[in-house]
Specification:
elongated; 22% helix
Length: 85
């Protein structure tokens, strides 16, 4: 998942997380992803898939809270978790 898609250009009115915020995702920095591809590109010659991850699951609520932390550069006016029922 690309966190950049959550960071719209300022000014930001709100950050909305749809659902409960409990789904877990494995986030990986693009530089780590490129490094992994470059490391394996010459080792896979059969067209097989490569699964790159950090192995660290993070809930969307925890990600949201990290983005909204006081020392974060991302500061929307409000934040909402929308329950999809």
């Amino acid at each position: 998942m690309c966190v950049r898609s959550w960071l719209p250009a300022p000014p930001v009115e709100a950050l909305t997380v749809w659902g409960t915020g409990t789904p877990m995702r494995d986030f990986i920095h693009i530089e780590d992803c490129v490094g992994g591809v470059m490391t394996t590109i010459d080792q896979i010659d059969d067209g097989g898939a490569v699964n790159l991850s950090t192995g660290i699951l993070t809930s969307l609520s925890i990600l949201r809270n990290s983005l909204l932390a006081p020392n974060s550069a991302f500061q929307p006016r409000n934040s909402v978790i929308e329950s999809s029922s």
